[in-house]
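REVIEWER CHECKLIST
Item 1: Sequence provided? yes
Item 2: Single chain? yes
Item 3: Sequence as submitted:
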Amino acid sequence: MTVFSPRSRSFRASVAGAILCVSIAALTGCTSGSGTTSGPVTLRVQVEQGEPMGSIHQAFARGFEATHKNVKVKLETVTTAAKVGTNLTVVSSANAPDVGLIPTNTPAYQSLVTKGGIADLAPVWKAANLDKRYPASVNALTSFRGKHYVLALSTSFYGLIFYNADLFAKNHITVPSDHRIATASDLYAMASALKKGGVQPLEMGGKSGYQASWMVDVLLPTSASASQTTNYLSSWHSTVPVTAKYTDPAFVNVLKQLQEYGKNGVYQNGYLGADQGSTESAFMSGTSGMLLDGSWQAGVMAKAKLPFKVGWMLVPPVKASSQTQLTGFYGADVIVPAKAKHKDLAMQFLEYMVSDEGQQKAVIDVGSQIPSVNTVPKSAFTKLDPLVQQMLQDANTNGAQSGWTSTVPAGIGQTTIDPLIQSMYAGSATPDSIGQTIQVALPGVRAQNK
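Item 4: Structure as written out by the authors:
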């Protein structure tokens, strides 16, 4: 699953509270309307390739078909690369699907909205009572110029490290009791011990287009002050004064730490040519001791019944005085194209997706992800994978943060900085040059967001 989440300067301040709000909710929510159509209808729904999204959408389809007798939901797979690129052509074509996928921090999303290519989801907000059932932060994150064009399905954490507890024990590697690697030296020692034991260290998908920059999101709040971090997350708005520059040590030192990871052999051999699928396969096969991934992968690994125990931990902070927190995001990329053939039925499908039933049966039970609405009974959370329950408790105790790359626009964010970080690992860019490139690009982004 690719991490692309909505842009909002309010996200960082409210994500921890929103996660807490969702996790302790015990109210009774709404349920999606049911009905029949005048004749057999095929509802075309896009789904991102891979797990757990494939299984989650299958569960959505089963639940919707159960109450819409003449409807057949046809899932159409979209690759991660297409989702952030060529899928724009598909969802804006005359043959657009009824439910599509467009990440909100890509140029494609803003282009579609401004050109009227995405339907206003006001009917879903009203029918599903999302103004109250979504935390305020999610309503803000899914809003564009006062209207809602995208649906948030779940909450996840990303940029964390899964580790093979059996390999750690075999190679006498001490596991941090608080899920936090204390120092960079400790991480280097872990990587070295694993390699001496004949296995690869941390699996990272260097060519994925997003994993190389994931740890920027995790590390930035441990390098920058609270006010600096807030400004980095919001200064892409032309109305927000730029008080934290990307050429400042607060940002550049994050890149320097990542550069040191590469120099000290933290990653697996050939990491710049690896995608996320290959890294997950390597870890699950037991040939690597650590995996950079997101909370959604916990459920996938549990279903695979791995022959070893898995734990999770966070990378060390840039400043020793800081505490690394989990990085959360809302999976908001579901849209109804303006040219959808069955627009009203698509709205009903979206309503089912965010119903308590859909959230529980698909998001929690199948995907082991945290629901996006705050009305799912607390008892349902016991079905989350134990590792995800640990993460949720950690977020409730220690707070959570939003990710810089998944908050700011693509002009300075993930699609811009990720290839620069790849170049840094390859030796053709430096932390200072990357900071300068982003700083130079910032005025153009601000001009587009007045």
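Item 5: Key structural point noted by reviewer: The mean pLDDT is 89.
Item 6: Recommendation: ____
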